[in-house]
């Protein structure tokens, strides 16, 4: 198993992984242009875990955000952590998270923030075992009239 930055050729596999996370497929016509923006932004780290056939079987994204409080140190936001159901329990999620932590350290981040849905108890245990204590947070989904 190897961890590396995602390539455009990984987009189809990313779509399948995101489906396993959200039970909704991303809008395919938007994925490639957004992937292009992400891949050109030095503050985005979209990682994939590749199996022996070079297929993406896990992914996680870290975003370096700047901050103006305290020491003015950046922080990392982690999103979309998912490992293919058939590959879970093999340490792939941990490998992805540790790689993002290494990136956060190399960017002198003060902390890492991630959000996990209330019902995802297994994910909560996973994050707690990696040293992420549960804290209360809030999020608001924005809706748009079309």
Strand order of the largest sheet: 1-2-3-4-5
Per DSSP, the total helix count is 4
CATH superfamily: Gcn5-related N-acetyltransferase (GNAT)
Radius of gyration over all CA atoms, rounded: 16 Å
How many extended strands?
5
Shape: globular
Contiguous runs where pLDDT drops below 50 for at least 5 residues = none
Q: What is the CATH T-level topology?
A: Aminopeptidase
Helix content class: 25-40%
CATH class: Alpha Beta
Please report which band the strand proportion falls in: under 5%, 5-15%, 15-25%, 25-35%, 35-45% or over 45%: 15-25%
Domain N-acetyltransferase: 1-146
Protein name: Acetyltransferase (GNAT) family protein
GO molecular function, one term: glucosamine 6-phosphate N-acetyltransferase activity
Pfam families: Acetyltransf_1
Written overview of the protein:
This protein has a single domain (2-129), classed as Gcn5-related N-acetyltransferase (GNAT) (Aminopeptidase). By secondary structure, it is an alpha+beta fold. The protein is built from 4 helices and 5 strands, in the order βααβββαβα. It has a 5-stranded mixed beta sheet, with helices on both faces.
